[in-house]
Amino acid sequence: MNSKLIALSIPFLVLGSVLMIYRDYRKCFAPRRSSGFIALSFLFVSLLMFNIIQWEGLTFSYAFVFQSPLPFFIASVICFERILTKGTPGYVAAGLLLSALSVLVFGGTHSYSFAVALGLTFVCYAVTRRDRMTKEVWLRALGVSAYLGVLAVLYMYNIRHNDYFPHATHHVDKMIAQPLAALQFLLAAFGASVVGVNAAKMYFPFSGMVFLGSLVVCLYGLALFLYFRFRLYERSYLPFYLLMQAFFYLVFMTAGRFGYGIDYGMASRYTCVSVMGLVGSVWVLIYVLAGGRTRRTGAVNLLFVPLMVIAAGLILTAMTEWRIQPHRKAYFENLREIALRVDSASDEELAKFEERPALVRESLRVLKECHLNVYHQPSVVRRSGSPGKQ
Question: Which domain holds residue 353?
């Protein structure tokens, strides 16, 4: 596929996730709250997901790997909840299809965190509805579990065959050898979901991001406590799933990327998933502030503080990225110009692609032979002004 088509499809994938989250979000507040309140409060939630903090996940073609599974995961969770509660045939078919697409087509390594988060969500469901866990519900759960097990076997079958990674890519041994550094890596990744990596490097020391990340983890814990304290599970299990998905995704990411540098986990591509944890947390806080099951008190009003911190972090990130964007645009235009003259480009120029020059040159020649990416015919015609030049 042309990378431009992939990049342009990403906002629609985000939109799909937003619309499905809004479905359950509205269910949590209606009919106690007006449609105006629901829409206005959800605007803040949606801005978390459409924020430029995930700029790599919006502009790079490989971001498709990070963005594409999320709406399918969310849709699968919604379908499985309806399967357990009502066994609706339409949701059964949709759930089986969507989960297959999630794991076998779009999920990739995201499937590991999806499996853990989905399993914990079911445990949450079983515990909170233990008085309604009839034999029929257990049979449905067993059937879904067996089906997901088959998908897992299909996904894992021969997974290392010709994958160009002859050695395991995890860094668990390094994490065990350096537990404190691994913890800092993980906490900084959590912090990067509030303050993007570029803003962090401009305004915060690494220790500051570690501290911010520890606050985000505390926010996760607070959100889970409030989720059960105010019985939000009676209205939706999606906030719980979003928290679990983001948490375990960053844990697994740490295991796979720790060896690349102490601040590597702050990369904006990972915020495509970690912002989902903020969405789940903010969802719970708004529910409690809106008077879920109790009157507002001074302690409850303190929940505005994390909301303001999150808003401030995302605004700072957006301002920073908008200032950087012209330089980033010039950088990518330079890469494009180098690619169009790949045969005469120097190794120093090819090194700007952040990969070995020989590998870059070979890869670009393959793209050129196949008329892909910048070598796509209409693009070359517009660039050169002549349909005969390539």
Answer: 341-384
